[in-house]
Amino acid sequence: MTYLGAHLSSSRGFFKMGQDALAIGANTFQCFVRNPRGARAKAVKPEDMAKLRALLAENQFGPFVAHAPYIMNPCSKDEGIRELAGRMMAEDLELMEHLPGNYYNFHPGSHTGQGVETGCQQIAAMLDGAVKPELHTTVLLETMAGKGSEIGGRFEELRMILDMARCGERLGVCLDTCHISDGGYDIAGDLDGVLEAFDRTVGLSRLKAVHINDSLNPCGSHKDRHALIGEGTIGTEAILRVIRHPALEGLPFILETPTDDKGHGEEIARLRERLGEI
Ligand code: FE
Ligand code: FE
Ligand code: ZN
């Protein structure tokens, strides 16, 4: 069974999220481990995470993906913001030790005028501080739309970070279909070509998770506005080609489409039907 799931809002406990994921036909899911816009870590109960861990194992879930807060910017020109990013990631990764063997995905950030190379160096330095050797979580860099001074809109930029970080060997990548299409990679028209480009620069072995989103805007628009599957410029057939691609077999595919649990459940059911899984 394909690992299909969605980003669930975090205004409930971790175990409840697992139950709600099951209820919508998901066998993987993503969530924030703290308030997505605020910096303050929410009070997490270790028992709650232990219960989620058991639920994920009992129900043969695929890898769970935690998402770093949107406000995290490890390559801001403001030193305080960079330090905050490092602290947030270190704290979140400590919390993730209650759910060992899973993923922690983050947006590389925006260099805010410092240039791509300086930005990549700062991201690499932050990672070297936060990704301690004893941790059991794989940190994933997300491919971005290249909006403004955002880093990660080109595969080469992710490669640069992997090369600059001493912990680079231990990092992975999460590919977001909306982001890379907006970034100028024609995932709808030339999936094989895009995956070949990814393999040449980053390496397909680094790809650990996929965000499946349609896009409101055309390829190369650098906008980052997600759409429901089939209601954007990528389309249902192209998303299905991604999910079925042999090079991506076994990865968790996670919806970050603009809808609620019920809507995600409907999208998952439609995709599973097309995959011959229900
Ligand atoms: Fe993201
Ligand atoms: Fe995403
Ligand atoms: Zn996005």
Description:
The chain is an alpha/beta fold and 278 residues long. 38% of the residues lie in helices and 14% in strands. The chain has 9 helices and 10 strands. It has helices at 14-23, 46-58, 79-95, 116-130, 155-164, 177-182, 191-201, 236-244, 261-274; strands at 4-7, 28-32, 65-67, 103-106, 138-142, 172-176, 207-212, 214-215, 226-227, 253-255. Strands 1-2-3-4-5-6-7-10 form an 8-stranded parallel beta barrel. The protein has a two-stranded antiparallel sheet with strand order 8-9. Strand 3 (65-67), helix 3 (79-95) and strand 4 (103-106) form a beta-alpha-beta unit. Helix 1 runs parallel beside helix 2 (46-58) and helix 4 (116-130) crosses helix 5. The radius of gyration is 18 Å and the shape is globular. The protein starts with a strand and ends with a helix. The model has no long low-confidence stretch (mean pLDDT 96). Bound molecules: fe (iii) ion (FE) (2 copies) and zinc ion (ZN).
Outline the low-pLDDT stretches. Answer: none
The proportion of residues forming helix, as a percent range, comes to: 25-40%
Question: What's the quaternary structure here?
Answer: single chain
Order of helices and strands: EHEHEHEHEHEHHEEEHEH
What's this model, at a glance?
With 278 residues, this protein is an alpha/beta fold.
Structural features:
9 helices, 10 strands, binds fe (iii) ion, 278 residues, alpha/beta, 14% strand
Write the layout of secondary structure elements.
Elements: E1 4-7, H1 14-23, E2 28-32, H2 46-58, E3 65-67, H3 79-95, E4 103-106, H4 116-130, E5 138-142, H5 155-164, E6 172-176, H6 177-182, H7 191-201, E7 207-212, E8 214-215, E9 226-227, H8 236-244, E10 253-255, H9 261-274
Parallel strand pairs: 1-2, 1-10, 2-3, 3-4, 4-5, 5-6, 6-7, 7-10
Antiparallel strand pairs: 8-9
Helix pairs in contact: 1-2, 3-4, 4-5
This protein binds fe (iii) ion (2 copies) and zinc ion (ZN).
One fe (iii) ion is lined by residues 67, 107, 142.
